[in-house]
Amino acid sequence: MLWLVGALLLCLVLAGVVVGLVAVPARREGRQVLTERGEQMLTSVTDRGRDKRAKGDDVEQGSEASGAHSAS
Predict the structure, then answer these.
(1) b/e burial code for range 17-56 (CB count within 10 A of at least 16 → b)
(2) Biased-composition ranges for Basic and acidic residues (predicted)?
(3) Of the four, 50, 54, 59, 61, which is 20 to 30 A from 25 by CA?
(4) pTM surpassing 0.85?
């Protein structure tokens, strides 16, 4: 089991090195790391997350106001 965890950590470190060597310098030079479709997907995911957080805040505030969460 310890070997499995070690192998997973090694893969994670190697992935971080690849990102550091490829994506970060490319982004600094102004090159696009993602394709146009990837950029659209990222934008839609962040927009949906923002919408869900906003709705979640409204639901939380509404339930606290109505006393739905009692400390019994």
Answers:
(1) eeeeeeeeeeeeeeeeeeeeeeeeeeeeeeeeeeeeeeee
(2) 47-58
(3) 50
(4) no
Burial class, 10, CB count within 10 angstroms (exposed 0-12 / middle 13-18 / buried 19+)? exposed
Task: List pLDDT tens digits, range 60-72.
Answer: 555 555 555 555 4
Which are the contacts of 39, defined by CB distance < 8 A and separation ≥ 6?
Answer: 32
The two three-digit tokens of residue 8, written as one number:
């997973």
Give me the helices (H) in 1-72, please.
2-18, 24-28, 36-66
Tens digit of each residue's pLDDT (9 = 90 or more) over 37-61:
988 998 999 999 888 888 876 555 5
AA identity, residue 55: K
Domain borders along the chain are 1-66
